[in-house]
Amino acid sequence: MHGTVMDPPSAAPPLVVAGDSTVPAWSLKDETGRTVVLFFGYTHCPDVCPTVLADWARAKRALGADTAAVRFVFVAMDPGRDTPARTQQHARQFDPAILGVATTDAEVARITRDWGFAVYAEGDPRTPNYTVAHPAQSFVVDRKGRLRLMLPPGVRGEDIAKDLRRIR
């Protein structure tokens, strides 16, 4: 495996994003029966986020027919700039099947508490050039809703695909 294996696996924390009139609400619980790969980032990210999304696109190609059993979800953690439509468009430019969901301030607070990580603006969020500190790893939740693996950035798409096949 190419990351931190959660052994024993534990139930993934809840994750619900409200959506809006352009992008429907999404819940991790609704994905039971499918492996879910999650990344918490933002659309203006200059480095880690686009690299991870590009690696996911390669992983999807490497999975071939097995990709139907996997959902890749990019969760935008910058409510000040990332709308549901913008987030979905951003994710889909890497692969049309990658789901992009945007959060509200209240959802960010709940997600960071439940998932145990921090997200915060670096620089003045009243200006357009701030960055957002966020986790760099992808979280892999298995078909039973258990957190199984955390993948660091930089894992090749082909290796992500191998790991996803192993944890089914």
Report on the structure:
There is one protein chain. It is built from 4 helices and 10 strands. The model has no long low-confidence stretch (mean pLDDT 93). The chain has helices at residues 48-63, 84-92, 105-115, 157-166, and strands at residues 4-11, 16-17, 26-27, 35-41, 70-76, 99-102, 120-122, 131-133, 138-141, 146-151. A hairpin with an 8-residue loop joins strand 7 and strand 8 (131-133).
Poorly predicted runs of 5 or more residues = none
Compute the separation of the termini in Å. Answer: 13 Å
Strand order of the biggest β-sheet: 1-10-9-4-5-6
Whole-number average pLDDT?
Answer: 93
Round the Cα radius of gyration to an integer and report it.
15 Å
Give the proportion of residues in helices: 25-40%
Strand and helix order: EEEEHEHEHEEEEH
Chain oligomer state? single chain
Q: What's the helix count?
A: 4
Largest sheet: 6 strands, mixed
What sort of overall outline do the alpha carbons produce when their principal axes are compared?
globular
